[in-house]
Amino acid sequence: MAFHNPPSKKPDAKPDDGGMGSLLRAEKLTQIAFILPAAVFIGWVLGVLLDKWLHQHWIYLVGIILGSVAGFIQIFRLVAASGKDT
Hints:
Protein name: AtpZ/AtpI family protein
Pfam families: ATPase_gene1 (PF09527)
Strand content: under 5%
Distance between the termini: 42 Å
Keywords: Membrane, Transmembrane, Transmembrane helix
Number of strands: 0
InterPro entries: ATPase_put
């Protein structure tokens, strides 16, 4: 019986992560999909509460804008962090 050496692995080759890597990528995409709507909703709710507390009718718009800005900032941070991992 002849002995065959296993093929040498290249140093720059990525290991096959299988199903767990796919699940992690799907989780990151799901997280990105929920960040912006959740941030806008939280900003809107806080704006409505401030409207009722201060007897105003415009603060909810500021809450929506601040929530969307916070959501985009978090999305950019998440994408930048995932870019460093690859």
